[in-house]
């Protein structure tokens, strides 16, 4: 389907769906999903996927993250990124209300547009200016759109076509990743954008640092922290998602927030790199070592499984691990 025909298809389908919903009381995202699948002959999965490729994304750790989760009230994720964990919980029907935030303003704008104006975004991304070419890439990269829809389209386009799918900005906040030269990147993924749209309907979106969680989290809520990882070597020190980097002092401040939420009665889960510094910060919560595949590295032969730490504050899992250690120590 050409970009021109895709744009027309989206507009006509949206017009039809609005009228179907008006006369039947049906849910718009589900109606659009059903019609889109019927016309395109495709089958949309229930679970939304991250619509951006994000360094440190959690799709590889979903089984570990969801293992032994307690029943919780509302959900909070202050380092939203690609939101793989949130999408899994939403697909499993575990989300009542979610408070989602990130310090990256362009990322949060993209989520907001997908939530509130997904059809306009899809029509924008279908335009010929978002072509997979070096000329189009650097023209879009140099642009500074002011409308929320154009900003979201620019953000998604650059993420899909930049080298290694990397999002990195300089000290002035300018996106500075070169063209990726991919053969056929999926710049407009209509099916997944609609699933993300559906998943966001019960959520509140915020732009700000991780301390914003202290305003909304209550006893019985689940809070998941996935901060920029503490570097395990001089060459792995990448925290350039925003123009303000995440320092060692920020990691310490995050630990204090973790403990504040723990004392408040929240269920708190954190993932970070496997390092003595992070392990020492959270030693009282008995961090668990897990393995994950990491695919963002400029050298392909340096991608692969690495150790990471998961920190949980709920007692059943911590108590079971401590008991197992005691049993092993006495044998």
Would you give an account of this structure?
By secondary structure, the chain is of the alpha/beta class. The chain has a domain at 67-103 and 208-237 and 246-331: 3-Layer(aba) Sandwich (Rossmann fold), CATH 3.40.50.150. Helix content is 44%, strand content 12%. The chain contains twelve helices and seven strands. It has a seven-stranded mixed β-sheet, sandwiched between helices. β1 (75-77), α4 (84-91) and β2 (98-102) form a beta-alpha-beta unit. α2 runs antiparallel to α8, α5 (105-125) packs across α7 and α5 packs across α8. The radius of gyration is 21 Å and the shape is globular. The N and C termini lie far apart (66 Å).
Layout of strands and helices, then pairs:
Blueprint: H1 3-24, H2 28-40, H3 62-66, E1 75-77, H4 84-91, E2 98-102, H5 105-125, H6 134-142, H7 148-161, H8 190-199, E3 203-207, H9 213-216, E4 222-225, H10 248-264, E5 267-273, H11 276-281, E6 288-294, E7 304-312, H12 315-330
Helix pairs in contact: 1-2, 1-5, 2-8, 5-7, 5-8
> What's the CATH class label of the domain at 67-103 and 208-237 and 246-331?
Alpha Beta
What composes the largest sheet? 7 strands, mixed
Shape: globular
Query: What is the arithmetic mean of pLDDT?
Result: 83
Low-confidence stretches: 22-26, 37-45, 235-241
The CATH homologous superfamily name of the domain at 67-103 and 208-237 and 246-331 equals Vaccinia Virus protein VP39
H/E series, N to C? HHHEHEHHHHEHEHEHEEH
């Amino acid at each position: 389907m050409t970009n021109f025909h895709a744009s027309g298809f989206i507009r006509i389908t949206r017009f039809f769906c609005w009228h179907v919903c008006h006369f039947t009381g049906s849910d718009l995202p589900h109606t659009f999903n059903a019609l889109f699948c019927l016309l395109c002959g495709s089958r949309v999965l229930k679970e939304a996927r991250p619509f951006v490729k994000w360094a440190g994304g959690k799709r590889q750790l979903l089984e570990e993250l969801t293992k032994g989760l307690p029943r919780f009230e509302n959900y909070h994720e202050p380092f939203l990124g690609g939101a793989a964990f949130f999408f899994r919980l939403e697909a499993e029907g575990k989300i009542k209300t979610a408070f989602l935030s990130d310090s990256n303003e362009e990322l949060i704008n993209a989520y907001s547009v997908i939530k509130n104006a997904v059809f306009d975004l899809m029509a924008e991304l279908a335009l010929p200016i978002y072509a997979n070419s070096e000329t189009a890439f650097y023209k879009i990269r140099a642009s500074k759109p002011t409308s929320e829809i154009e900003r979201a389209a620019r953000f998604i386009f650059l993420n899909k076509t930049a080298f290694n799918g990397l999002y990195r900005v300089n000290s002035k906040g300018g996106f500075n990743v070169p063209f990726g030269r991919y053969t056929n990147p999926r710049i407009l993924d209509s099916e997944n954008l609609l699933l993300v749209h559906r998943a966001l309907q019960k959520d509140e979106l915020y732009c700000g640092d991780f301390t914003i969680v202290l305003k909304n989290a209550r006893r019985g809520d689940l809070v998941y922290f996935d901060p920029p990882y503490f570097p395990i070597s001089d060459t792995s020190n990448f925290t350039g998602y925003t123009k303000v980097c995440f320092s060692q002092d920020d990691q310490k401040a995050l630990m204090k927030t973790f403990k504040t939420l723990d004392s408040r009665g929240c269920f708190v889960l954190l993932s970070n790199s496997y390092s003595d510094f992070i392990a020492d910060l959270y030693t009282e919560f008995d961090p668990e070592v897990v393995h994950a595949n990491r695919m963002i590295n400029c050298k392909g032969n340096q991608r692969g499984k690495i150790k990471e730490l998961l920190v949980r504050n709920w007692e059943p899992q911590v108590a079971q691990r401590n008991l197992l250690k005691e049993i092993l120590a006495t044998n």
